[in-house]
Design brief:
Blueprint: E1 5-9, E2 12-16, E3 21-23, E4 28-35, E5 40-45, E6 53-57, H1 58-66, E7 71-73, H2 87-103, H3 117-126, H4 130-142, H5 188-203, H6 209-220, E8 222-228, E9 234-240, H7 249-258, H8 262-270, H9 272-278, E10 296-303, E11 308-309, E12 316-317, E13 321-327, E14 333-339, H10 345-355, H11 359-365, E15 380-381, E16 384-387, H12 396-404, E17 408-411, H13 421-437, H14 460-475, H15 486-491, H16 497-508, E18 512-513, H17 517-524, E19 531-534, E20 538-541, E21 546-549, H18 554-563, E22 568-569, E23 573-575, E24 578-586, E25 589-595, H19 607-649, H20 659-671, H21 676-691, H22 694-700, H23 708-713, H24 717-731
Parallel strand pairs: 10-16, 16-17
Antiparallel strand pairs: 1-2, 3-4, 3-7, 4-5, 5-6, 8-9, 10-13, 11-12, 13-14, 15-18, 19-20, 19-22, 20-21, 21-25, 23-24, 24-25
């Protein structure tokens, strides 16, 4: 830029450059020109409203620097590189270049009130006002010949005095009494209120600037007082403060927009996930980096908005869940399943099970016509699969299935359905089709008082048939938005999924088929239960309280014997749709182990059904355990009462001298308490009473003879002992 003056005296060194700031006690200047040959420096006043300058010799400037009368510091220049395409900046730069040619490099002729014909020519040439020309000159010279100072800057906060009233720019209010005198800038109290409601807006979806301003008025700018009506009743009245004391909505809204970013405002409106989804930068599409059929799959579930009726009654049931896998390159469903499972491993495995199933057999089962297996390409595995954050896709079993089949799961951002556009497009097309087809047949339109649950008449099988018919037609429908390559145009390749599948085979090769069906099915089985094998319980699943065994499987019998009574862990897999069998690998083949005979009643039962029955059974066991406890406590109570009465009646020490004889006496006396003869006499008496007429019973009834044993029971203990001894003596 300019030359550099180096002065060395008393081991001090001073360097002055164009653009530096020379500051005196009460004046600050920018260095505009340095004359190396003559030792002169041209300084322009940095903060003066007029264009004023001084010239200094380098000796005088250095002398003032030595005594501390002046300081020299680098200029505070703009560090942001201006946009060279900005039209305002380009216009100002063109004017400046002509001014530099006419008045540079000292620019001393611009100072003073002398005539400046060259400047007038420049103004006329560029068709600008004199005010703009002098603004360019001031910006350039007061900033030390910094061209970037000409770049248009955004308006900065003014250093306003909150206690002073300023005149407002722009249009005036129509009514002078409605004008506000509040200055928001640099007013801590007002800014604190604004900041409080800014945070509320950003934290609530349905709380916008208008509602925030109204709530602000209610909380901070409302005065309350009591008034009496015409009847003299006292009531509370509210009224806003005078307009002069209230900030306007424009003030609040302008401050809010200035102190928030566009992203913050949009996130507050529609939420973080929706903003990421709808406002994200898109650098490609779903076809990017997708090399042929079988490279990428998309999978998802959709709740079909149609009420159904039960297959076993005429009762309405809830909506069914449609699970679909879409091949991204061709855009056709390779797996489809309709069930009432949602966000579960059973839903995921049912969908994948459809992937390995013949679509001819599937359509034939539901009465849908499919000409050949090639009309619905399926039964092949993907390299990668886009999944969402549902529990069915993020479970351990799903991760294991992908690992065992060499599939790379690619999770997408939660809440962003457009990251899986192909499957969402299929659901949207199907929804439009069902809405037009089933409007009065259980379809949920959302209209008030439509009551679709009362118009339902389709079963899940009938609805799935409709979906399969739509899918067969969907596969043969051209994809209008598919971007054909030049090779496709040259070969005149169609855009139906079938055409794209055939082209993919020719160019990229056939996708990986499901070669080993046993391995594929084995990977679909669940393995999230802990089982043990032992000689006592065979295969025992403690979590279910079920036992499995196979007497014909010698290998399993040997493993049971080797495990012993304590048992060993034994990994098995199961199908939650039927718990009749569990499976383990025997020589690389999934081998079933059946339920024991004691548990055969649970065969052909789903895991959910069994767990519900077991829960009910456990509830009964808990009630039985309570009843058992009550009976045992009652028996214990009565026993303790009998013991207590006996203890209180026998307060003596029993004799033990004649224990043997006493035992014999007790045995014989106990035997006479209840005999067969007594039962026969009671039976005959009862029979006579039943068969005889009433008059005969009265006439022939006689008192029964007394039994001696019963007579002895009414005696005291000592008397019974004497009678027993007499009987024993007479017997001998």
């Amino acid at each position: 830029m300019g030359s550099i003056i180096n002065k060395v005296q008393s081991k001090l060194k001073l360097q002055v450059h164009v653009g530096d700031v020379v500051a005196y006690l009460n004046k600050t200047y920018s260095v505009v020109f340095v004359d190396h040959a003559n030792g002169q420096v041209v300084l322009f006043d940095k903060y003066s409203s007029e264009l004023s300058c001084i010239t200094k010799s380098t000796e005088n400037l250095f002398a003032e620097y030595l005594i501390g009368a002046v300081s020299v510091t680098p200029g505070d220049h703009y560090i942001v590189i201006p946009n060279d395409n900005n039209p305002i900046y380009l216009k100002r730069l063109a004017v400046l270049n002509d001014i530099i040619d006419a008045y540079g490099p000292t620019y001393l002729d611009l100072v003073g009130k002398n005539s400046k014909p060259e400047l007038k020519d420049i103004i006329h040439k560029h068709n600008i006002s004199g005010v703009l020309a002098w603004k360019i000159i001031h910006l350039f010279l007061k900033n030390g010949c910094d061209r970037t100072a000409l770049y248009p800057k955004t308006t900065k906060d003014r250093n306003l005095d909150p206690n002073k009233t300023y005149a407002r720019r722009g249009a005036k209010a129509k009514d002078a009494d409605l004008q506000s005198e509040v200055v928001a800038q640099n007013n801590p109290e007002i800014l604190s209120i604004f900041n409080e409601y800014k945070e509320k807006i950003l934290s609530k979806h349905f709380f916008g600037p208008t509602a925030a301003y109204e709530d602000m008025m209610c909380k901070y700018f409302l005065q309350t007082f009591y008034s009496r009506d015409e009847a003299g009743v006292l009531y509370l009245d509210v009224k806003l403060l005078p307009p002069a004391l209230i900030p306007t909505f424009f003030q609040f809204y302008s401050w809010y927009k200035k102190n928030t970013t566009y992203r913050e405002r949009e996130t507050a409106k529609i939420g973080v996930l929706a903003y990421k989804n709808e406002r994200r930068l898109q650098y490609g599409d779903t076809f990017s980096c997708t090399h042929g059929a079988g490279h990428f799959f998309e999978s998802d579930h959709w709740e079909v908005p149609v009420y159904l009726i039960s297959q076993f009654s005429n009762d309405t049931v809830s909506k069914a869940i449609l699970s679909v896998m879409i091949d991204v390159y061709t855009g056709h469903p390779v797996a489809i399943n309709l069930s009432f499972d949602n966000n579960s491993n059973r839903a995921f495995t049912s969908m994948v099970l459809s992937l390995g199933r013949s679509k001819m057999e599937l359509c034939k089962e539901y009465g849908v016509h499919l000409e050949s297996e090639s009309d619905w390409p399926s039964q092949y595995l993907p390299r990668s699969m886009r999944i969402d954050s549902g529990s069915d896709f993020t479970s351990i079993n799903t991760a294991r299935f992908c690992k065992e089949n060499d599939i790379v799961p690619v999770p997408v951002t939660p809440g962003c359905g457009s990251y899986k556009p192909n499957v969402e497009r299929f659901f949207g097309a199907l929804n439009t089709y069902l809405a037009s087809l089933l409007e009065d047949d259980g379809y949920i339109t959302g209209m008030p008082n439509s009551h679709p649950e009362k118009k339902a008449h389709l079963t899940i099988k009938q609805l799935f048939k409709i979906i399969l018919e739509f899918t067969v037609a969907y596969i043969k429908t051209p994809r209008l938005n598919f971007k054909r390559t030049e090779d496709m145009r040259r070969k005149n390749i169609g855009t139906t999924p079938l055409d794209l599948f055939q082209y993919s085979i020719e160019r990229y090769g056939a996708p990986t088929p499901i070669i080993n069906k046993n391995q594929f099915l084995w990977s679909l089985l669940m393995d999230d239960v802990t089982s043990t094998i032992s000689s006592n319980h065979a295969l025992h699943i403690k979590e279910w309280d079920l036992e499995y065994a196979d007497i014909k499987n010698k290998e399993l019998s040997d493993m049971m014997e080797a495990a012993g009574e304590n048992g060993k862990p034994f990994p098995v897999r199961y199908d939650p749709r039927n718990i009749a069998n569990v499976y383990y690998l025997k020589d690389g083949v999934p081998t079933p182990v059946h339920l024991k005979p004691a548990y055969r009643s649970y065969a052909d039962t789903t895991l959910y059904e069994y767990l519900k029955k077991r829960e009910k059974e456990n509830t009964k066991k808990r009630h039985d355990r309570r009843k058992r406890l009550e009976q045992k406590v009652a028996a214990r109570y009565h026993g303790k009462q009998t013991i207590s009465l006996s203890r209180s009646a026998h307060k003596f020490k029993p004799g033990t001298k004649f224990m043997r004889n006493n035992t014999i006496f007790e045995k014989e006396a106990t035997a006479k308490i209840h005999t067969i003869a007594d039962e026969l006499e009671n039976e005959n008496t009862t029979t006579l009473c039943i068969e005889a007429p009433a008059s005969t019973i009265i006439a022939e009834s006689k008192p029964l003879p007394k039994v001696e044993a019963s007579h002895t029971l009414n005696q005291s203990a000592s008397q019974r002992m004497i009678a027993l001894r007499k009987n024993m003596d007479s017997a001998t």
